[in-house]
Amino acid sequence: MAITKATEPEIIIPRDISPQDANPRWNWERPIHAPGKMAVDFEERVDFERLRRYRLARAKDALENSELGAVLCFDNNNIRYLTGSVIGEWSRDKICRYALYTKGSSHPFLWDFGSAAAHHRLYAPWLKQDHCHAGMLGLRGSVAVEAGLFKRAAQEIHDLLKAAGVADLPLGVDVAEPPMFLALQDVGLDVRDAQQVFLDARQIKSMDEIVLLNQAASMVDGVYHNIAEALKPGARENEMVALANKLLYEMGSDDVEAINAVSGERCAPHPHNFTDRMYRPGDQAFFDIIQSFMGYRTCYYRTMNVGLSTPGQVDAYKQAREWIDGAIAMVKPGLTTDKIAAIWPKAEEFGFANEMEAFGLQFGHGIGLALHERPIISRLTSLDNPFTLEEGMVFALETYCPAADGSGAARIEEEVVVTKTGAKVITLFPAQDLFVANKY
Fold first, then answer.
1. Is the dihedral of CA 168, 169, 170, 172 positive or negative?
2. Are strands 171-173 and 70-73 parallel, antiparallel or unpaired?
3. Which terminus of the chain is less hemmed in, N or C, by CB atoms within 10 Å?
């Protein structure tokens, strides 16, 4: 039986789209949804077609406003933003997928790993069929340059740029293997940085993106409830990490990127990892859960004590809470990030030699398809290079305070949406006071 190929509809990309334009019916006074995983016919949830259109439109506008003639993406987050395609955590560090988007075009080109390209042609109708190819390069050096894959890909990209009339303009590249940069230069292309173009595009979230970020945060709310029940003497840090991974994947997470589980004497200085350390009565323990739902990530710290707490631990928590509450209260459109960084303590005031050594402890960072987007807020960078907050941004604020008596440290993080009236917190597991799990 012959299979008739359907005619492909042209994808119309809107120009000058804003978060409100992406969903004109949205009322910002209405609560942000955390609707669950199913699609339903009786209420509005995430509209993925609208989400893809919004993201591509943002990328289009950012490219049009740049000096670049095209962008070539190897960063999986940029590829997903541009094409709405993903093949999972496996591809995170392979640098084997890539996408090309040229000025004046409505359709990106995508080169995906092996049979994934054929799968996209069947199940991703928003991608133009003849723009979706199999591609392979060096697998981080495992395939020798002499095999010619870099040279062939660079020539193919040059030919596409020439056909689009932009081969004489700079080509933006986000991340790539050095042989790919060299191959692109060898065919005469002027290679520049494309990451800033994508960060320009990604910094304002549509309501669909905000709903997905809220849904991701709601999953971690539930994980923290389960950790609080399991956090007892005799349990171990790695067991809390295993519990969190299991729950998150059962809830629908598509990538548990990392989980920090830090306790007791390991709390100060913060090691940013987990071990098999066993919890003891009175331990202070903090966690960071970094995972994504439909690509949209969380970075969500909470601190809990095991059974009981000391005055030093309580005081440290109160101080960390004061620092984060002060930052949240300041958030509004038009505020510059240096104002937030300025209210946080200097590195020397909480036990570190300089701001580089203390980086990431009193901290803010945009969050979306990537863990670190705009804005970045820190005394290291923001005081001399401030950034202006805008409505529709979503970012995390983090604070850290070691206990003066050496008994632990407090770590708190809240994710906030910038609305026209201020910050909307979407991380809801109780954190106003130090949480004591399984209290004696």
1. negative
2. parallel
3. N
Distances in Å between the alpha carbon of 342 and those of 330, 339, 381, 400? Answer: 11, 5, 11, 15
CA dihedral for 150, 77, 126, 72, sign (positive or negative) = negative
What are 47's two structure tokens? 């509209």
From 257, 240, 239, 249, select the one nearest 299 (Cα to Cα).
Answer: 257
Residue 14 in domain: no
pLDDT in tens, 324-350: 999 999 999 999 999 999 999 999 999
Q: Tell me whether residue 31 is exposed, middle or buried, using C-beta atoms within 10 angstroms of its C-beta: 0 to 12, 13 to 18, 19 or more.
A: exposed
Q: Find, among 385, 373, 383, the residue nearest to 341 by Cα.
A: 383
Distances from the Cα of 423 to the Cα of 200, 203, 331, angstroms: 21, 16, 6
pLDDT of residue 19 exceeding 90, the answer is: no
Which structural domain, as residue segments, surrounds residue 98?
19-24+32-202
Number of domains in the chain: 2
Residue 296's CATH number: 3.90.230.10
**CB neighbour list of residue 209: distance below 8 Å, 6 or more residues apart:** 51, 54, 296, 368, 394
